[in-house]
Give the backbone structure.
Amino acid sequence: MKTRFVALALTLAFVSSAFAQSNRTHVLSSENTSLVVTTNDGGTAYYQYFGPKIQDSDIKGFFGVKSNYTGNTLPAFGIHSAGEKALAVEMPDGNMSVDLGMESVERTRDAQGEVLVLTFKDKVKDYPLTVKQYFKNYEGTDVFSTWTEMTNAGRKGEMTLLTFASAAVPLTREDNWVTQFHGGWGSESYMSEECLPNGQVVLSDKAGLRNAFGSNAGFMVSIGGKATENRGEVFGGNLMWSGNYKTRIVATNNGLTVFSGINEETSTYHLAAGETFRTPEFVMAYSTEGKGGVSRAFHRWARKYALHAGDKLRDILLNSWEGVYFKVNQEVMDQMMGDIASLGGELFVMDDGWFGDKYPRDNDHTSLGDWMVAKGKLPQGIKGLTDAARKHGIKFGIWIEPEMANTKSELYENHPDWVLHQDNRPITTGRGGTQVVLDLCNPKVQDFVFGITDNLLSENPEIAYIKWDCNADIMNYGSPYLPKNRQSEIYIRYHMGLRNVLERIRAKYPDVVIQVCASGGGRVTYGLLPWFDEFWTSDNTDAYQRLFIQWSDSHFYPAIAQASHVSASPNHQTGRVVPLKFRFDVAMTGRLGMELQPKNMTDEEKAFAKRAVAAYKQIRPVVQLGDQYRLLSPYDRGAAAAVMYVNPEKTRAAVFAYRIDYLHGQQLLKLKLDGIDENRNYRIKDLTPQDETRPCNLNGQLVSGRILKQAGLNLSGALGRPWTSVCLELTAE
């Protein structure tokens, strides 16, 4: 398609004759994209352009173009009070106006890329507000970010932050479509797309902890019509914050602005003299290659910068939860370790049910906070388990939920003041009727939470993996630690405390793999992933429903981060009966694992599982580190769904296709493989045939990349019946 040069151009509302000498233009460029900001000494700053990469010689052309919209980088409340604002502050004397003037501009670098820093001060000298606005390009990627720092530079008096968005990015108003993701427990991240009307579309969360259940912070906006997977102009944004967030997409007949940041509702923040508040980074990408282009940009960025150890292949594991639930003991754990080792697995994770002394953890009613081994279940302790794992030649991992307590626990009995609550109201509880949330605003509680992980890992250095769970949101909004005039900061200070804990853990234990879990996919967020290696995608392990959830999550989050497990059939959440091959072929599109009791499998199922695990190991580098192309969407309600992964050299690819609907005579679409090199020939191998002596009809075929991309694969022979699937490896010759 022909790209309109100013698809996301953000031009000033004056021509070059009005462009004063004090104005300067600053360009940050990646390989494919440029961000241009214009500053006015003593005045404001404007977004000038965000789109396909431009040269310095192109810049002067901006100022001969009029626009009916000016993109102020930091619209503030008080002088011009109408409309949506990114910043609102109450000054020490009660004045609620902000009028910022440019003080300085600096270009610098950090360990991740080039940074443009704009410094503003309020034009009233008696007001102590200093604002630094940052723009950054992550080196080697097409992802940019922006955030602000607000400082109370006075010697006395307190300022109050009322609104403090990380970004206010103007886009072109032209037949825009919004892609967003909503859901709940067991049905996380369901995708919806709609034409953007005039008014506001608001994406927000107020849960306090599990900020990805109701909606996800990632969204896309197309320009000039509804984008497809690989065609169309698309802006993608996400917020690196683990707490409450709010994104407002504000559209009028002639303008469109995206405001995104911490949700300020019930979160007024106070700045004492000398104190600085930093907003989380708003990360963004632009692509002319449709939604898939934005996704691939975010995936590459995540693996390099926003996901812990994003360049290291993840192990194939068995998690004990759906296999035994709380019925953990030494003998069963040893049996499960032996079984996963025999299937080719590399790691065993013991889930909930292993701890508690006075109150053994036999159900979800007790014991959170009492992180000592339940000797009745595990008389040999954790060492007995790590010894067993070593015996079987695999690694060992363990489940914890360190931010929580039960009211029926020794921790709560000894430290009721460590729990979020209000002194004059009855305490409200969550899961099991007893679960409460620890007060991570309190440094002593932070030390305790750090100590849970530190004690486990220092006493048991063979632990290779931790599943970090969070099964509640903030209840009983009150912190015994914070003073009365700071209670409005709980939603923010909790996450500051959590980050402090995670930074301490990662400084001491950089090589331990840690999964972030929150009743499933409640914490699929870049606010936490820099400290975690992966996320638990959903408690719903039904392979058919996972097609939808994983398709949605892949819009912003790479396959290497998505934990996807093969579970029992009938499925424990939906009751659906799906063949083992289909379940494996779905789970192999993320970080492959299993979530069942292997001893309940038949010999035939075990034989297939062993072959499937071996097949996954062959394509693991392509799936976990390659570029993803979404080919056929399950949301289109067609007969099939499909996805593909390609290595950067385009010499290897893995193609997964699924029959998800069946009517007699129903025609399957040809599967066109976007992302394949048209100038190569590819040999096709069926990696997971149900019968290894009878691979599908495509096995062994040598096909040109041009045919694969333009004409496509005919899947009718491979996907002839309901719940059939294929996993194909393509190798260039």
Observations:
- Residues 1-21 have pLDDT under 50 and may be disordered.
- The longest helix spans residues 603-625.
- The domain at 629-732 is CATH 2.60.40.1180 (Immunoglobulin-like).
- The two ends are 30 Å apart (CA to CA).
